[in-house]
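User: Structure with NAP, tokens only please.
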Amino acid sequence: MYAVTGASGQLGRLVIERLLETLPASQVVAAVRDPGKVRHLAERGVVVREADYTRPETLSAALTGVDKLLLISSTEVSGRLPLHCAVIEAAHAAGVSLLAYTSMLHADISPARLAVEHLQTEAAIKASGVPAVILRNGWYTENHLMALPAALEHGAFVGAAKDGRFSSAARADYAAAAAVVLTSERQAGRTYELAADTAFTLADLATEVSRQSGKAVAYNDLPPEAYEGVLANAGIPADLAALLADADVAASRGALFDDGGELSKLIGRPTTSLETLVAAALPG
Ligand SMILES: NC(=O)c1ccc[n+]([C@@H]2O[C@H](COP(=O)([O-])OP(=O)(O)OC[C@H]3O[C@@H](n4cnc5c(N)ncnc54)[C@H](OP(=O)(O)O)[C@@H]3O)[C@@H](O)[C@H]2O)c1
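Assistant:
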């Protein structure tokens, strides 16, 4: 059986859909904190099991009979290492033949503070001896587009990335890659740097939004502390706002850029363009 943790989340749901294209639903396990959130999957025959990173007893039961597992990193951005370790231990106990983990682009050399727990998780996986493949995902383009309504309202995107290039890709592209890796042979021991075929700066993003919307939208680069304040004012928890501002600073130094083309190679098609994703995100 093939299990996906965090399967009620935006990435996890997409991975489950990709797996269902090639596997019978009875072979797919949606491992979730709240089974009530994925009733639609249970109705389609997907095996739904409770798997809460903070409750290890749920994890061993969830992984019974599981051969390949995708561990989607926790949203608890500070303190997620022990949560991930609980899943790694359960995977070891269950004897999975492959553990795939959603890490961060160039986690081994990234100056971004967000990379620290990813790298620690990668090390814990290695130390566990569980056969594993690391999916170092770049930024989601959808992250940038969360600011689209505010950008249209105020006529500007804000950030602290200067002219740093982002090789951000669609969640759907990362999900497709995860499904390919889970269902392919000889993946253990590999590390993939997953990023879009074409990179863009935040000024490029603003230009594309202006072009498609017909409204003037600029990119205003802010000092990191000011950008952190904007994020906090928008309701993002303080620790996450600080990490996101720090990630923009890292991006200004190239941390979220990659031109290796591994994502499109894995999924067998070009990555989804910024143009397409902006069009899908624009209202009406
Ligand atoms: N590369 C990027 O740009 C980027 C951006 C954002 C996030 N990420 C990472 O990618 C992951 C997936 O992103 P996403 O967009 O799918 O996030 P999401 O939509 O917020 O989904 C997060 C998933 O994690 C689950 N979860 C949270 N705490 C859990 C716990 N204690 N035990 C079990 N499951 C738990 C959530 O369950 P519930 O449905 O019950 O809440 C949900 O299914 C994130 O968790 C984060 O680590 C990457």
